[in-house]
Specification:
Layout (H helix, E strand, L loop, with lengths): L25 H64 L5 H17 L2 H19 L8 H5 L8 H13 L4
Helix pairs in contact: 1-2, 1-3, 2-3, 3-5
Amino acid sequence: MIGWGLSLVAVGWPAPHERRGLGMDAAYFTGLAALAGSVIGGLTSLGASWLTQHSQLGAQRYARNLERRETLYKDFINEASRLYADAFEHDHTELANLVRLFAIISQMRVVSSRRVAEDADRVARLIMETYVAPNKAFGDLESTLESDMVDPLRRFSEACREELQKLGAF
């Protein structure tokens, strides 16, 4: 019966025993529901896997970037220290000795902050100025101790540490 006393048969609908072919069989409905649930579950699993993979790749890329900077800074400090000590003992150098230093500085300009690159340039200029200055003996270091020439890499090292701290390296 529908609402106000009308029967489905009266309005043209077939009687329940005559409607078999018109409705959905319960077995089909159960099967489609299970299939839909499987599809939804699979898509959810796929989405979760993709998000996890994407975040892991981002973290790996970030870690590689930090490692690359740390290696670059370490290489610069080692090369600049070697050249600075050499500049104290010699009044000239081969241009090839400075090429590696300037290559490292150029790499820093690409990946580092402006302050780090500028401090690296300042160290390179000091090394070149030291090469053209008269050679220094160990006894001459007393006057040098009172200037910034004792630790020319201090500002550079501090700039690197600040940058790495901002990036969350420590």
